[in-house]
């Protein structure tokens, strides 16, 4: 069990003083390098995963890393936060990150598990196209594999949903924004990135000089006009 007040005391007495300059700068400014859309799951810690400092990542989190499409009645705080990150903060790198063993994806696969939670049940409906895609593409998948595939298909679906918003789509089409679809594997610490086809995921590796593969994959994705036409 974490001790909340002990953690706060340690932050104030040890961590904050050792980063005083950074926090002084951040007191009046933020220029985040990326928008990171992730699940609320406690095991997903974006700043730890990317080794990012305060001020680096603009976070949007909810059950299932869902982005309601344009026109949804429940876009609310999620879409407003994304709009702010893009329009007010000029963020141009957007990472949509799902994760293994996601409870929200279990909820879309097994509606009976969330029927006593009407808000959750309604929210995860935004992942219904992911469940249908898995049923279509992997009809023989066993339970564990089906969940893994649903996590991936949900990332694909939520990237598509991002593109239904004109403030995203116009920037992507103009080459001023890059979208990444990731799946974080809690068991191994690895991350799989959506590849050029927009349908497959492969592990992100790093080249010798440290340039991540995902930049290359993204360029391929942008160059693949068929992908955008399929959306
Ligand atoms: Zn989750």
Strand-pairing-aware structural class: alpha/beta
How large, in whole angstroms, is the Cα Rg?
Answer: 18 Å
How far apart the termini lie comes to: 44 Å
- Mean pLDDT figure: 91
- Low-pLDDT sequence parts: none
Biggest sheet statistics? 6 strands, mixed
Number of strands: 6
Q: How helical, in percent, are the residues?
A: 40-55%
Shape: globular
H/E element sequence: HHEHEHEHHHHHEEEHH
Strand content: 5-15%
What's the number of helices? 11
Strand order of the largest sheet: 2-1-3-4-5-6
Ions, cofactors and other bound molecules: zinc ion
Description:
With 231 residues, the chain is α/β, with parallel strands linked by helices. Helices cover 47% and strands 14% of the residues. It is built from eleven helices and six strands. Strands 2-1-3-4-5-6 form a six-stranded mixed beta sheet. Helix 7 (128-137) crosses helix 8 (143-163). The longest helix is centred in the middle third of the chain and has 21 residues, at 143-163. Zinc ion (ZN) binds next to helix 5. Zinc ion (ZN) binds at residues 39, 41, 64, 99, 102-104.
């Amino acid at each position: 069990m974490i001790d909340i007040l002990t953690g706060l005391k340690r932050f104030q007495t040890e961590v904050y003083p050792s980063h005083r300059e950074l926090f002084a700068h951040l007191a009046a400014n933020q220029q985040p390098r990326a928008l990171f859309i992730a699940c609320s799951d406690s095991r997903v810690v974006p700043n730890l995963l990317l080794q990012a400092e305060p001020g680096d990542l603009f976070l949007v989190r909810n059950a299932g890393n869902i982005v309601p499409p344009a026109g949804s009645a429940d876009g609310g705080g999620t879409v407003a936060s994304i709009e702010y990150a893009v329009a007010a903060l000029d963020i141009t790198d957007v990472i949509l990150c799902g994760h293994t063993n996601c409870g929200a994806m279990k909820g879309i696969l097994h509606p009976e598990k969330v029927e006593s939670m009407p808000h959750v049940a309604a929210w995860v409906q935004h992942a219904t196209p992911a469940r249908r895609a898995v049923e279509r593409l992997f009809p023989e998948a066993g339970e564990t594999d089906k969940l893994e595939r649903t996590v991936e298909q949900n990332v694909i679906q939520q990237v598509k949903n991002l593109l239904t918003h004109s403030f995203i789509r116009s920037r992507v089409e103009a080459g001023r924004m890059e979208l990444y679809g990731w799946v974080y594997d809690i068991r191994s610490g690895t991350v799989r990135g959506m590849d050029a086809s927009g349908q497959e995921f492969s592990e992100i590796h790093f080249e010798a000089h440290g340039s991540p593969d995902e930049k290359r994959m993204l360029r391929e994705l942008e160059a693949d006009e068929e992908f955008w036409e399929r959306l």
